[in-house]
Design a protein that fits this description.
The protein is an alpha/beta fold. The protein is built from 14 helices and 25 strands. The longest helix has 22 residues. The protein is globular, with a radius of gyration of 23 Å.
Length: about 450
Amino acid sequence: MEKSDIIIIGAGPGGYETAVEAAAEGLAVTLIERDKLGGTCLNRGCIPTKTLCRSAEIAQNVNDAAEFGVEISCQPAINYAKVVERKDRVVDELRSGVATLLNRVNIVNGEAVFTSPDVLEVNGVSYTAPKIIIATGSRPASLPIPGAELALSSDDMLSALQLPKSLIIIGGGVIGMEFASIFAAFGVAVTVIEYCKEILPPFDAEIAKRLRMSLKRKGISIITGAQVTAIEEGMTVSYTAKNKPQSVTAEAVLMAVGRVPVIPGGFVETGGMLTKRGAIAVTDDMKVVYADGATSGSTEVYAIGDVNGRCMLAHAATAQGRVALGHNQPLDVIPSAVFTIPECAMVGRTEEQCQAAGLNVKIGKATFRANGKALAMGEPDGLVKIIIDADTDQLLGCHICGAHAADLVQEIATAMSAGVKASEISLAIHGHPTLTEVVKAAVV
């Protein structure tokens, strides 16, 4: 029996950053990973997609060069093999950095299986500790429809070495829209089919609509309010929209309908732990809930990140890891972004959520078109929308569509975490000319 102070299952952002912090506190840490360090985020998610996104931005800028007075005599070719090489280099470099950070952690490569509520088995060896943190992440989901096996997953798309001439994306959420934006910039004919009436269902409807219209102007076909019913040989996707059966054909089909938690083997059978809608049930301090209602036995078991289904974002997993270690880490303000071209980002409540809650709000808006830096960059297509409690002046939410939205939203996220009021944002001096002036202009 191998013993340590803490065992962490999964070396994604939640797992490895928690391991680094626990080791820095002097704990003996065992980190179990069945694949590569960095988890989905580094190897098959955030980092490779954002690397592709940057390459796509370069391609888009070449297409828009004439606007900047730059004449290109011939249409540049996309060398996708080089694009993939760059993506792999970035991932390899960051993975090497993660390994360096974990120099004080005992790393075990293999599949962890619960043999009892406080014992794990990996490669025939048993491990135990007073605290176990499950950080096993998630995998791509798929629709239960005929022909679903014909579709590519996001993992498949990131490992592909060639561009398809045309692509159908099932799902208009964050993953689907990022891939749509990336591959359209590379010259692929892209069609997106989304079940909901608008793309990016968690986002503010006005921001989602703005992105949809922007992407349509770039040539992306987006079909909303459509239920996919089957995928057939020849890559024909059948769907129903407005009560009419329809179909569309492309060279490849990407299934991008979200992700589902990956739960360790033996977790339910031997541990008696509860799952809720396919995710591990946890309390607000990330402790696993058992079938008898208890939250701990001889070993305290926690679950963080995608596997508990609370917030499927890498930075949320890291924050939850700090909670599991017993630190004071608020989890009520978590920004999120979609790295399309242009980007979208949000934090806090949407206008629709505020209305449903009956809150008395005031809404401020400012467009990128009125901002000097945005015009100089050639990025006038953008909007900042800030929602404020009309009675208390507290910031309730911020929603942005436009260049560097993912960076800009952090100002409001930090202000919300610190309890800064809206009027204090408007009093703060913002540099000129910068995109942050759009954020200031949106405060009412």
